[in-house]
């Protein structure tokens, strides 16, 4: 595919909703950041800090209460329409009544593509995630790791300019996660898409991202922006390199403070 | 097998124990088979019935013998037009039921996705659902007469409410993540309804079908007994009036078999729906 050119900019975005207590619940406040076209941006933060909310905002499933999410063409600096996006979900969200092949072909079918062609493309996408031969299985017949690979194929087949990964490995066991993280690192590198990765795993962020945004506890804001300069695609072995260890330390220190703050906040409101 | 014969040659006592063991084993297996137990019990019951009626010389007017009932049933199927009656009854049940299925699912989905529609329909359903539908027979006869439209309506009313209510529940229980995933993949509202909400509600809709079809059968047969000139209910009623006890039993037998077939058919479909349940 042609490499993506549209940046996603959060400009002083606030997301709040009224609560019974009178004080509105503020998920995000004065959030400013730029998700660079063609790069992998990871957002990491304590749970409840509004990470997934950012993804929903970028996708357009939520509207900000204040501020703006802008799509900007890098070449001209002009506003651009929302580029095509596809999401990989933590809970997989596969349609249990459809076969693996029809799950992957679902988006193409919604777009009106003829059966033969969409099945052909779905087969190719499944081959890319090493699921050749599982086309006629149903999701319930697959392991968690396989289901998420179906989820990845279902997003990739849409040839999105922006790939949204919403804690994609969060529901998997530790071993499966390790293997899949490496595989995804390779797949993502190959597509060249803009990637927004929501995660709470520091290793995962270092493994996959060009830029890591560390978020504060609620209301979520960017605490620090960290560039990861190690060559890509990275493997688990790269995580043992000294620069990775230094990054881990830096992020961990930030997060620990935020997690403690989030915990005390919770204690205070209860 | 070869091993056993060898054993029998060399050590007769061991062989007999083995044989006894295997016999006991088959007996136990037979006792474990639920279907065999069920059918065996039914046959035994019928045999006792037959035997008691013969021994006690009970008049067939009160209690006919099972074999007599089967004979009358067979004769009525061949010459008495019982299969025509069965056809009428089935047509009435299923015609009304299918109308209820289509309209019930459509209204149920509409209620589940639109709050005003739900508010309006809820109040009507709350009023009509608990009402025993047989009580509507007189009113429906006044409005529609006793012909086809009446029968369709009565069968429709039996199935409609359970199907609507279960469809609403099924659609509302649809995992929100699936709707988001469909939106993410570019589905529009119509596609979300048809390709996500309805499929995910299928197990619940099917539970409604189970209940609804049962009520439709009851209503149609009851209505036939009251107003119809043909159909199983009418045949049953006339046979009762003429004290044709054997025919009464024969019609009941047909209804019972019909019930079994429908229930088993639903069980088969239900098993296939396992697909939906575990995700």
Q: Which class of the largest domain in chain A in CATH terms?
A: Alpha Beta
> What is the distance, rounded to the nearest whole angstrom, between the alpha carbons of the first and last residues of chain A?
51 Å
- Global mean pLDDT of chain A: 89
Reading off the top of the CATH hierarchy, the class of the largest domain in chain B is best stated as Mainly Alpha
The number of distinct helices of chain B, counting runs of at least 4 residues, comes to 13
Q: What percent of residues of chain B are in strands?
A: under 5%
Helix content of chain B: over 70%
Number of domains of chain A: 2
**CATH homology superfamily name of the largest domain in chain B:** MetI-like
Q: How would you sum up the major sheet of chain A?
A: 6 strands, mixed
Structural class of chain B comes to: mainly alpha
Count of β-strands of chain A: 9
The pLDDT mean of chain B sits at 86
Low-confidence stretches of chain A: none
Q: Largest beta sheet of chain B, briefly?
A: none
Most residues in contact, chain pair and counts: A-B, 21 and 22 residues
The amount of beta strand of chain A, in percent, is 15-25%
Give the distance, in angstroms, between the N- and C-terminal Cα atoms of chain B.
45 Å
Poorly predicted regions of chain B? 1-12
Describe the secondary-structure layout.
The complex is a heterodimer of chains A (270) and B (279).
Chain A: E1 6-17, E2 25-35, E3 40-44, H1 51-59, E4 66-73, E5 85-88, H2 100-110, H3 115-128, H4 144-156, E6 162-166, H5 174-191, E7 194-199, H6 202-208, E8 211-215, E9 222-227, H7 242-269
Parallel strand pairs in A: 3-7, 3-8, 5-6, 6-7
Antiparallel strand pairs in A: 1-2, 1-4, 8-9
Helix pairs in contact in A: 2-3, 2-4, 3-4, 4-5
Chain B: H1 2-10, H2 12-32, H3 34-55, H4 66-78, H5 82-113, H6 115-128, H7 137-144, H8 148-172, H9 176-184, H10 189-227, H11 232-241, H12 245-272, H13 274-277
Helix pairs in contact in B: 1-2, 4-12, 5-6, 5-8, 5-10, 5-11, 7-8, 8-10, 9-10, 10-11, 10-12, 11-12
